[in-house]
Automatic annotation (TrEMBL):
Protein name, entry field: Urea transporter
Family label: Belongs to the sodium:solute symporter (SSF) (TC 2.A.21) family.
Record's keyword terms, sorted: Membrane, Transmembrane, Transmembrane helix
PANTHER family with a match to the protein in the record: PTHR46154, SOLUTE SYMPORTER FAMILY TRANSPORTER (AFU_ORTHOLOGUE AFUA_6G03200)
Residue stretches spanning the membrane: 12-33, 59-84, 90-110, 131-153, 159-180, 192-211, 246-262, 283-311, 358-385, 406-426, 432-453, 460-480, 500-522, 590-610, 616-640
Compartment(s) where it occurs, according to its Swiss-Prot or TrEMBL record: Membrane
InterPro entries: DUR, Na/Glc_symporter_sf, Na/solute_symporter
Gene Ontology cellular component terms for the protein in this record: plasma membrane
Any one GO molecular-function label of the UniProt entry: urea transmembrane transporter activity
Keyword Transmembrane included in the entry's annotation: yes
Highest taxon in the source lineage: Eukaryota
Membrane topology: Multi-pass membrane protein
Source organism (scientific name): Suillus fuscotomentosus
Length: 676
């Protein structure tokens, strides 16, 4: 891949180290401004782990898009577009969106059943005790480790491909750089992400001299289909949803991502940080907005990588792609290169040269750091509240908890780097891990969901379901690998579509059947009282004291948002309102899931339609419109809903400029009284 090293090695180190330092300095500045002009203290553990549970829906949605945009979101989605054509972008996007939509139900139940919990594992401990807590902690930390390893592997492979930077150095520098800035600016990252995606889309489909239009892309994909037809696709075409292997990937994607959403503390973290009254809204907006990221990106660069194999290079003796003398701009990629997620980076470099490679490198690094940041905070919360506070120092002070939170970030950053290097040396790529994650994590999806939402969930049945499902997934995966590959089991043979499909389905299916069946036969009757009591007393007292002592006119005089201060009061935690939110989440998420997974793709799959220029034009234009609407939802909307805070900060800055020292926020005297 030396030909793809269009940027100097220094550019790789500059992006990995320089951008990390820039955002660290940027966040230090923002944190200082927040503390000076709003009175929100970044030195409190509650603010560090859960943003004081008062974040508005637009920013939560932006954070969801930011955290859910992994390296795989950009690289693996483009790889499946390169392999299967237009079915790849759909199945990647739809198969990883529905989990966020369905998670809205769990988020609503979290606010109803355990509104003051810091982690989902605290709820498991309160309901089922220490054994279950430690058992499910394995799945939680395994999820974080696998997701983090994919981030490091995908990011390092692309940086190495484009710049020649040492893969080992990248594996360590990426997480360590993020650790310096664990609370990244999700909104900033999301803004840059959408800007670069739209730049690539308009370049490929409007201005590029190599492609430049939807009709030209359609023609080139048709030419490539004649040269190397796609196995399992209708007519061997890249322009059809009738893709057998694309559908198989879709199922694997669906199962694996249920595990990485339902078991990843990073997603619970945002539900915990959100305001109770708007949690469901945030997850529905975030899920639908995120869909545009892999769909638009892979429809652009994934398909462009395919099309470039039908575009003649400058030194090609023939202009006809079917000629034996034809030399393409981008030669067909090996399976290893595809698994490493290189189609996107090579397409970007081919499309725009150094500027394209630099843009891809920046957007990938932001995606990796954004998601890595979420994983670091998630693991830090587990290590702090589920290990340190629960088992080591139950009477830990505020400062001890905060120090442990910071230490947890540093510890896991080092673990991420080590895990990335280990996987790299044993030949495990990002693509392999992506399809494998459901095999070992899928069995715990249903038991965890039942624990949080269903009073009848049986402790023993859910533990056994997770354990037996885990075993069934591993056995099915290995047996299928052996049967289909003449008893040869290695990284290459075990990564096939059918091998991973068998393991994923066995894991999630067995776990769900056992946990549900045992709960129906031997139902528990849990009232969630102990879950609601988690951290409840201190939060409730603090909220009550603030509400009782702080007069609204005084708040308005200081420019504060009253609803933000009372986000955890009794009105927002009203069971009737939260039950309504849960029912709405259930209806909305199920309907959207049916539309994305059943009603749109399956009729087109069975129709075996190969898109004409008109059909493909609709496909691309819908993607562009969806991307614009998503950008509005997670970039513009969060700024609008935070306008009061932005005015408060702006006023403080202006006052400091004209009268130094006068702009600092001063809390009303009643707020300074200690909470008893």
């Amino acid at each position: 891949m030396s030909t793809s090293e269009v940027l100097p090695q220094g550019a790789g180190y500059g992006v990995v180290i320089g951008i990390g330092l820039f955002f660290s300095a940027f966040m230090v500045g923002l944190t200082a401004m927040q503390s000076r002009y709003t009175g929100v203290s970044p030195t409190e553990s509650e603010e560090f782990s859960s943003a004081s549970r008062s974040v508005k829906p637009g920013l939560i949605a932006s954070g969801i898009v930011s955290a859910w945009t992994w390296a795989a979101t950009l690289l693996q989605s483009s790889a499946v577009a390169y392999r299967y054509g237009i079915s790849g972008p759909w199945w990647y996007a739809a198969g990883a969106t529905v989990q966020v939509l369905l998670f809205a139900q769990l988020a609503a139940k979290l606010k109803l059943n355990a509104p003051y919990a810091h982690t989902w594992l605290e709820i498991v401990a309160a309901r089922w005790g220490t054994t279950a807590h430690l058992f499910f902690m394995f799945f939680g930390l395994a999820t974080n480790l696998i997701v983090s390893s994919m981030l490091v592997l995908g990011g390092s492979a692309t940086v190495t491909s484009l710049t020649g930077m040492s893969t080992i150095a990248a594996c360590f520098l990426i997480p360590l750089g993020v650790a310096m800035n664990a609370f990244h600016t999700a909104l900033t990252h999301t803004t840059v992400l959408f800007a670069i995606i739209l730049t690539f889309m308009f370049t490929v489909y409007a201005t590029s001299g190599y492609i430049g239009s939807i009709s030209r892309m359609h023609y080139l994909l048709g030419e490539v289909s004649k040269i190397s037809p796609v196995a399992g696709n209708a007519g061997g075409s890249y322009l059809t949803l009738r893709s057998k292997n694309g559908l198989i990937f879709g199922v694997i994607n669906l199962v694996g991502n249920f595990a990485t959403v339902f078991e990843d503390q990073a997603y619970w973290q945002r539900a915990i940080a959100s305001r109770p009254s708007t949690t469901v809204k945030a997850y529905l907006i975030g899920g639908l907005a995120w869909f545009a990221v892999p769909f638009a990106f892979s429809t652009t660069l994934g398909l462009a990588a395919v099309a470039f194999s039908a575009v003649p290079a400058a030194n090609s003796p023939s202009q006809d792609p079917l000629s034996s003398n034809f030399i393409p701009m981008l030669a067909p990629l090996s399976q290893n290169a595809i698994s490493e997620g290189l189609p996107a980076s090579l397409a970007a470099a081919t499309l725009l040269g150094k500027s394209g490679a630099a843009a891809l490198l920046i957007v990938l690094f932001l995606a990796v750091t954004s998601a890595t940041s979420a994983e670091l905070i998630a693991v830090s919360s587990i290590l702090t509240y589920d290990v340190y506070v629960r088992y080591i120092n139950p009477k830990a002070t505020e400062q001890q908890i905060l120090r442990m939170s910071h230490a947890g970030v540093a510890i896991f950053a080092l673990v991420m780097g080590i895990a990335g290097v280990i996987f790299y040396y044993i030949g495990v790529s990002m693509g392999w891990l992506y399809t494998f994650m459901g095999v070992i994590l899928g069995s715990a999806v249903c038991p965890i969901a039942l624990c949080i939402t269903w009073k009848k969930a049986n402790k023993v049945g859910c533990i056994l379901g997770s354990l037996i499902g885990f075993s069934a997934g591993i056995i099915a995966w290995l047996v299928t690998t052996s049967a289909l590959n003449q008893k040869v089991i290695n990284v290459t043979t075990s990564g096939g579509d059918y091998e991973m499909l068998a393991g994923n389905l066995a894991s999630i299916g067995v776990g769900a059947i056992i946990s549900t069946t045992t709960s129906l036969i031997w139902p528990d009757d849990y009232d969630f009282a102990s879950a609601r009591a988690i951290n409840n007393r201190g939060a409730a007292v603090a909220s009550r004291n603030i509400d009782d002592e702080l007069e609204e006119p005084e708040v308005e005089k200081k420019g504060l948002d009253m609803s933000a201060l009372s986000a955890t009061n009794e009105t927002e935690l009203d069971p009737v309102g939260l039950n309504k939110a849960f029912k709405f989440a259930a209806r909305a998420s199920i309907v959207l899931t049916l539309v994305l997974i059943i009603l749109i793709p399956l009729p087109l799959f069975f129709a075996q339609t190969i898109y004409s220029v008109t059909g493909f034009s609709v496909w691309v234009i819908v993607g562009i419109i969806w991307t614009f609407l998503s950008a509005v939802a997670v970039v513009i909307y969060p700024l609008w809903e935070s306008r009061a805070a932005l005015r408060l900060i702006s006023r403080g800055v202006i006052m400091d400029i004209f009268s130094p020292g006068s702009g600092k926020f001063v809390a009303p005297s009643s707020m300074k009284k200690p909470v008893e």
